[in-house]
Structures are given as structure tokens and as C-alpha cells.
Amino acid sequence: xxxxxxxxxxxxxxxxxxxxxxxxxxxxxxxxxxxxxxxxxxxxxxxxxxxxxxxxxxxxxxxxxxxxxxxxxxxxxxxxxxxxxxxxxxxxxxxxxxxxxxxxxxxxxxxxxxxxxxxxxxxxxxxxxxxxxxxxxxxxxxxxxxxxxxxxxxxxxxxxxxxxxxxxxx
Length: 170
Description:
22% of the residues lie in helices and 32% in strands. It has one domain (8-141). By secondary structure, it is α+β, with helices and mostly antiparallel strands. The protein contains four helices and seven strands; from the N terminus they run E-H-E-E-E-E-E-E-H-H-H. Strand 3 and strand 4 (58-71) form a beta hairpin.
């Protein structure tokens, strides 16, 4: 077992050798993930196992644990989202191998270039994010929504009125 995560890794060679890598990855280095976060603070604990299964399929299996900070779409405040993810990727060299991949694996296309570990981790976290991040069971969040009162009696202009005027001029 290797107790650090390299920046780049030859996935095929490492799977052939059957290695386990473990380490911490700062959230700030996950460039693809940063645009959806409100903070790049913190670290994720990552464990990657590379090897070959009984059928000869090269794989990358892993776990990701930690917390990230998103914006709650109900109260528009920061919220902590705990992560406890597991993934299992089948390493393929081209798209034609996807059909041969067992159902227990998601495909990961591997090129001749060493893979960037942070990109793989960021992709797995992105796939696990909720479509609409919301505080779960937060009284403060629910109180904010209950306190909202739309304006009463205010006349709003129809946004299509300009089109109606244009049509009349024709």
C-alpha cells in the first residue's frame, strides 16, 4: 500500500501491478469541482485500489470521504455536504471495449498519458452531487422559506405586452 496520492498515475501499469493508494487530497486542487462549491477549504480522504478481477478486467475502485461546501438553493446560505462515496471503474483503452465491460463497472477511458488523479476524484464527486442542494432538516432554512411573503396587490407588467404592441403595428 502506498500512503500518498501522486498527481499523475499510469492506471494500466498500476492495475497490472495491483496497488492500493491512500492519501488526502485538498479540495482546492479539484479544479473541475470548484465552480459549484462556495469554498475550496478542506481535504478529502481518498483510497484507490487498482488491479485485475477474475475475468481479466483492469479496474480502479475507490472511496472518497470528507465534506464540501455548497450553496443551499432554499435559503441561499452555505451548507456542508458530507461525502462517503464508493466507485468502481473499469479501465478501457477505447470505446469499443465498453460493451465488453461487466455491469459492475462504470467505464473509464485510459490514454497513453498518465491520468490526473484529481480529475478522476473531481468527476466522481460531481456525479454524486445532489441536483438541488438543500439543507436537510434545518429549522433555520425552513423558517427562512416560511417567512417569505410575496408582494401583495402590486401590478406587474406583462412581459409579452411589447410583443402585442409590435403585432398591432404590423
